[in-house]
């Protein structure tokens, strides 16, 4: 039996694989798009980065002048 | 020596095409979910980034599809008996029940988590509750237990516009509740009209549909009563911040049309219905589908027209909530 012999089963599986690949690619594109939208649309992004910064410490905040 | 060659050309029952997995997600039901969720999203005050909005709609649809797959997993025995559902992937032998369960659970988790991340926790929680309600409350419990299955189970289909609204605003308001009620009140007459002309299906599957438990006369009365109850809900939606003259005109005209159809169904008996192969029941069923699309379409039109300042001022006069 030749290894390259076609069978309807191969066609079905190939269609399934291509379909799944397209779905995964679309999902990646959507998550990428979402990331861009969230990062560009949000406010300033600031978090703890392993060094002490007084501006992130609520106890050291200077009260606003009256 | 043992021959361990496998025959890879033998298709098993689980050797489905990609389309069979798509069919598992009930794409036709999904169109209604997408449309009503989109309406909720577009009419809500404020707005989302277009990519966030697209993601919200996709994940709400995916959640709806996941619950469809779980419903097919649970109801495979019923689906095999009913003519309308006998060609679904599981009874047709293309997808196994285990596959449907795995796909349903996985897609449920993905859709809820992704909707939460894309929009907010309330939208994600509402989607999770919708899936739970459709699968556990409706499919596993009510569908086989009570003739009110359609009434209470209809709530699952009514959540998408509320989820769309919550995705934008992060809250639930009177407008979101009225959109929910609109689909909730519409569902029973829509499905009972279907049950009238799919008469043998539910009986053979032993599903306690109203037509089976209380008879066809009672079903016709129920269709009329629920359509009457739908009218104030449809009109009340027009008196909130999302309503206006375009919606009110559409709601009034189509609600009266639906009422006229329900009245025609109520006036008929089985002999008349048999004589014309349930022509009126089929017509009202089709009309009920366009009813929902037109009313939610009118809500979207209102949201678009409100961008015109002159129209926005005029439409504001319809907002009863503003008057108090």
TrEMBL record, chain A:
<protein>
    <recommendedName>
        <fullName>Cytochrome C oxidase assembly protein</fullName>
    </recommendedName>
</protein>
Automatic annotation (TrEMBL), chain B:
<dbReference type="InterPro" id="IPR044878">
    <property type="entry name" value="UbiA_sf"/>
</dbReference>
<keyword id="KW-0350">Heme biosynthesis</keyword>
<keyword id="KW-1133">Transmembrane helix</keyword>
<dbReference type="Pfam" id="PF01040">
    <property type="entry name" value="UbiA"/>
</dbReference>
<feature type="transmembrane region" description="Helical">
    <location>
        <begin position="287"/>
        <end position="305"/>
    </location>
</feature>
<keyword id="KW-0812">Transmembrane</keyword>
<feature type="transmembrane region" description="Helical">
    <location>
        <begin position="178"/>
        <end position="197"/>
    </location>
</feature>
<comment type="pathway">
    <text>Porphyrin-containing compound metabolism; heme O biosynthesis; heme O from protoheme: step 1/1.</text>
</comment>
<protein>
    <recommendedName>
        <fullName>Protoheme IX farnesyltransferase</fullName>
        <ecNumber>2.5.1.141</ecNumber>
    </recommendedName>
</protein>
<feature type="transmembrane region" description="Helical">
    <location>
        <begin position="29"/>
        <end position="48"/>
    </location>
</feature>
<feature type="transmembrane region" description="Helical">
    <location>
        <begin position="149"/>
        <end position="172"/>
    </location>
</feature>
<comment type="subunit">
    <text>Interacts with CtaA.</text>
</comment>
<comment type="function">
    <text>Converts heme B (protoheme IX) to heme O by substitution of the vinyl group on carbon 2 of heme B porphyrin ring with a hydroxyethyl farnesyl side group.</text>
</comment>
<feature type="transmembrane region" description="Helical">
    <location>
        <begin position="122"/>
        <end position="142"/>
    </location>
</feature>
<dbReference type="GO" id="GO:0005886">
    <property type="term" value="C:plasma membrane"/>
</dbReference>
<dbReference type="InterPro" id="IPR030470">
    <property type="entry name" value="UbiA_prenylTrfase_CS"/>
</dbReference>
<keyword id="KW-0472">Membrane</keyword>
<comment type="similarity">
    <text>Belongs to the UbiA prenyltransferase family. Protoheme IX farnesyltransferase subfamily.</text>
</comment>
<dbReference type="GO" id="GO:0008495">
    <property type="term" value="F:protoheme IX farnesyltransferase activity"/>
</dbReference>
<feature type="transmembrane region" description="Helical">
    <location>
        <begin position="95"/>
        <end position="116"/>
    </location>
</feature>
<dbReference type="InterPro" id="IPR000537">
    <property type="entry name" value="UbiA_prenyltransferase"/>
</dbReference>
<keyword id="KW-0808">Transferase</keyword>
